[in-house]
Amino acid sequence: MDIREVDRADEAALHRFWEIGRAADDAVRPFDFHPPWQGARVAYTEGRTGFRNVLLAVHDHEEMVGRAFLVYPELDNTHLGHAEIAVDPRHWRRGVGSAALRAAEDRARRDGRRTLVLEAFAPLGEDGPGLRFAKAHGYTPAIEDRMKVVDLVATEPTWDALEADARRRAAGYTLVEWTDRVPDEQVAGYCRLNEAFNELAPTGELDLEPELWTEERVRARNEQSRRGGRRELAVAALGPDGSMVGLTEVVLSDHAPHRGFQSGTLVLPEHRGHALGLLMKLRNHRRLRADHPACTVLMTGNAGVNVAMNAVNERLGYRDVERCLELQKDL
Length: 331
Description:
Strand 3 and strand 4 (80-87) form a beta hairpin. The protein folds into two domains: 2-113, Gcn5-related N-acetyltransferase (GNAT) (Aminopeptidase, 3-Layer(aba) Sandwich), CATH 3.40.630; 148-322, Aminopeptidase (3-Layer(aba) Sandwich). It starts with a strand and ends with a strand. It is built from ten helices and twelve strands. It is an alpha+beta fold.
């Protein structure tokens, strides 16, 4: 076996890189959470806005059998790296994953990163092969999320009653919404809310610093999302003074229109207790049914310690389907 960096101009190699990740997910995960090829290709070739990536492949002779996908924050948290390790299931238990992880760690060290973070998915109530693999290689669990799904069609009849209760509690607040491009007048508030996530949302023992968001970062991400066929439906809550105090986003792909991903939701601490999280999410659920009826399932992840958001999701009908552990290692 040998390790090679993937040539981003080699379309066949990039597709095989994606295919290995998809096959590994399909072998152990209960739902298809994997990004579509068209969006992944943009991420591989350009890197996510504000991040740099490295694509390492494990080859057995000329066949690519495993991969390590390294992602480095460039605007903040520059001590950190994220690694996704995947092996073609036909080549499991041959040391391919260990080779990929060693290569990722060596590369991250050379690139000046001192902490490497892995995600491992496991069935409810037990460890899975990914979690056992990470622990065996010296990674320590930092926080556990529960991955959840909600059937939008089945839960729609409950929305009217939920919204009536939420609106009563949210008197004095208003909602604004947009699709894909953050309105100019909301960019400053959007940046403030995104910078607050790492400080206010549960992050466990993860070695994280606050993020840095600017209008340039927002606009670059908007444009990259457009190129990858990624749609973003956002709802923000405005306080009585008109400032943004809450935010939620749903991400869709033109290439997988049947499903969506409920991304981050945050309400500033001084505005909690007014059902704003519930109200914002309900607005997005209604928009999905009206504007994107092919999307019938939303997926999300919540830290187990995030009692308030788990309660909101339970009221909306989300159900747990697997565990996601974020683990880290000091390099």
